Amino acid sequence: MMKTIAVLFLALGCCLCEPQNSGHIQQSGGSTSSCIPCSCPKDDDYLARKVALLESKLQKTEKDVSELRSLVEGRPQVAFSAALLDSGNGNVGPFPGATPLKYKKVFSNTGSSYNPSTGIFTALVKGMYFFRLSMFNQQIPTPKSVVNLMKNSQIVATIWDMGGTDLNDTGSNAVVIPLDVGDNVYVQLMAAAIIYDDSNLSLTTFTGFLLFTM
Ligand SMILES: *[C@@H]1O[C@H](CO)[C@@H](O)[C@H](O)[C@H]1NC(C)=O
Ligand SMILES: *[C@@H]1O[C@H](CO)[C@@H](O)[C@H](O)[C@H]1NC(C)=O
Q1: Containing domain of residue 48, as a range?
Q2: Which stretches make up the C1q domain (predicted)?
Q3: What is the pLDDT of residue 30?
Q4: Which residues pair with residue 16 across a beta bridge?
């Protein structure tokens, strides 16, 4: 508090005086009317204290700058996006049980949190993440298409296309969720369901990125 007041007076062009018996700071020499006149012995001792004050202020500023720099430079970069098929076209499934989808056509994978050989995204930093999935259903043949966005073994969001004989339905969903280090996020195709993709069109995709660390 004292240092703040002293620096403020310096900034106003006032003279910082040696604290008297009371320990209060007085000042003079400035044109500002709020300055209280006093005599300021500008001896070596006074200048040494003034330099020490500025030095400690500078050290604090340098520390703040270095903390801010490490925050910006150390910010983890996590982003991935992938489509289901990297060659050909056709349905994936049906499988007898719920199965994680392996999105093979990787558009981006900064931070390598997404594993295309398992289809699983694993959080390497604790934070708030955005995920989006889209699903294409050609309905030829006509079993259902159901996919779940999973966090570990919990369903977070779902896309359904169950009935009807209409062709070429598409659906999407997105969430923002907190993840701890080691949490797994993936898309699960439900038992007996199918999903369609065309590697030239990338109709069925899975995307995620870190919004901010926590
Ligand atoms: C994708 O495009 C290439 C080049 O046009 C073509 O040769 C290939 O057959 C296409 N693949 C599919 C699955 O349509
Ligand atoms: C369905 O999509 C396929 C491409 O996957 C396209 O060739 C076909 O014309 C579409 N059919 C209809 C009825 O929209």
Answers
A1: 2-74
A2: 73-214
A3: 42
A4: none
Q: Is 167 in the pocket of ligand 2 (CB under 6 A)?
A: yes
Secondary element (H or E) of residue 75: none
pLDDT at site 72: 65
Tokens representing 182 are 């080691």
pLDDT in tens, 160-211: 988 767 788 899 999 999 999 999 999 999 999 999 999 999 999 999 999 9
Place of tokens 């195709």: 189
Last residue of a domain, one of 74, 93, 125: 74
User: Quick check: 114 and 168 in contact, CB under 8 A?
Assistant: no
Question: Is 75 within 8 Å of 213 (Cβ atoms)?
Answer: yes
Q: What is the whole-number distance in angstroms between the Cα of residue 179 and the centre of ligand 1?
A: 38
Ligand 2 center to 35 CA (angstroms): 82
pLDDT beneath 70, residues of the chain: 1-42, 70-73, 140-142, 164
End-to-end CA distance of the chain: 32
Distance 168 CA to ligand 2 centre (A): 6
